[in-house]
């Protein structure tokens, strides 16, 4: 059984390569199809495309925004003194007589000469950075998939409970006494009595009751509702990318619930129809989140 996944999720991975600090972020929301938008700094298009490809391999639906940020903090430069050169200069200066009126050489003067003091700025190898970014993007995608599946497990519980509720309401409509011809006849007799009419032929009354019962019969709607419940349970048991098919079933549920409500010939059956429509609408909203 494949896991059910939500289309919403978020993941973040941060790290550093040398003096460069980087951070990947990806967030996904509902979408009719898969759309991946990538935003990376200049020079990192390769890592961005690798991350896009990794997402496209494991996702089927959802709008994904993938972002990479790079920062290079102001770090203290490393200073190195060329001690051999400094010693050689000091010895050379000591051997040279100092003309009258000229100050002798000082340490700060010698340090100011080219090559004595070297400032090293740490450079980051571009290949190493790209490798680190690509590897971290793979972990980012795995984290996003895990987040979407975790939410998917919660959605599965909610949707399964809603399908069970639809099944229960369908059975309640099936068992509702108001659907029986005898109940229709009783309501018809009560309506006639309220109008002050009497002496109606019993056979004619029975015929009218049967006609009204036939017009209000919801047998086909109940049968289709049961078939849709079975299909929904099969999809939930199979798992995987079932969002589109569940969305189609939500539309079918809604169609049958509306027809049942329109045909209802009693307030008790109307109430069941209203409850059914409410649960179907909740079901429709939830399956919009499933991949």
Question: What descriptors fit this protein?
Answer:
single chain, 291 residues, alpha+beta, four-stranded mixed beta sheet, two-stranded antiparallel ribbon, 6 strands
Low-confidence stretches: none
- Count of alpha/pi helices: 9
Category by helix and strand content = alpha+beta
- For this structure, the quaternary state is single chain
Shape descriptor = rod-shaped
Question: The biggest beta sheet, please?
Answer: 4 strands, mixed
Mean pLDDT: 85
Percent of residues in beta strands: 5-15%
Distance between the termini: 15 Å
Reading the helices and strands in chain order gives EEEHEEHHEHHHHHH
Helix content: 55-70%
Q: Taking strands numbered 1, 2, ... along the chain, how are they ordered across the largest sheet?
A: 1-2-4-3
Q: Using DSSP, what is the number of strands?
A: 6
What is the gyration radius calculated from CA atoms?
39 Å
What does the model show?
There is one protein chain. The protein has 9 helices and 6 strands, in the order E-E-E-H-E-E-H-H-E-H-H-H-H-H-H. The two termini are 15 Å apart. With 291 residues, it is an alpha+beta fold. Helix 1 (45-58) runs parallel beside helix 4 (126-175), helix 4 runs antiparallel to helix 9 (267-287) and helix 7 packs antiparallel against helix 8. The strands form 2 sheets. The protein has a 4-stranded mixed sheet with strand order 1-2-4-3, covered by helices on one side. A two-stranded antiparallel ribbon has the order 5-6. The longest helix is centred in the middle third of the chain and has 50 residues, at 126-175. It has helices at residues 45-58, 83-95, 107-111, 126-175, 181-194, 202-215, 219-238, 243-263, 267-287; strands at 9-17, 20-29, 34-39, 62-71, 78-81, 117-120.
């Amino acid at each position: 059984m494949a896991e059910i996944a939500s289309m919403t999720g978020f993941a973040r991975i941060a790290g550093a390569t040398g003096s460069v600090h980087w951070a990947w972020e990806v967030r996904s929301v509902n979408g009719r199809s898969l759309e991946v938008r990538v935003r990376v700094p200049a020079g990192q298009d390769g890592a961005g495309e690798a991350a896009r490809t990794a997402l496209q391999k494991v996702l089927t639906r959802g709008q994904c925004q993938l972002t990479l940020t790079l920062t290079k903090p102001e770090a203290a430069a490393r200073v190195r003194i060329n001690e051999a050169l400094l010693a050689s200069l000091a010895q050379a200066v000591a051997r040279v007589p100092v003309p009258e009126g000229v100050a002798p050489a000082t340490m700060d003067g010698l340090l100011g000469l080219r090559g004595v003091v070297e400032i090293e700025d740490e450079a980051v190898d571009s290949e190493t950075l790209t490798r680190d970014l690509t590897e971290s993007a793979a972990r980012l995608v795995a984290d996003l998939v895990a987040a979407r599946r975790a939410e998917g497990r919660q959605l599965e519980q909610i949707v399964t409970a809603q399908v069970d509720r639809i099944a229960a309401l369908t059975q309640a409509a099936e068992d509702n006494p108001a659907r029986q011809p005898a109940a229709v006849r009783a309501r018809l007799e009560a309506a006639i009595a309220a109008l002050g009419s009497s002496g109606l032929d019993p056979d004619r009354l029975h015929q009218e009751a049967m006609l009204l019962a036939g017009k209000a019969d919801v047998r086909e709607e109940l049968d289709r509702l049961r078939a849709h419940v079975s299909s929904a349970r099969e999809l939930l048991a199979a798992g995987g990318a079932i969002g589109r098919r569940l969305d189609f079933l939500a539309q079918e549920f809604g169609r049958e619930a509306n027809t049942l409500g329109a045909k209802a010939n009693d307030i008790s059956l109307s109430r069941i129809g209203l409850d059914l429509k409410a649960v179907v609408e909740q079901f429709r909203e939830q399956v919009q989140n499933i991949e």
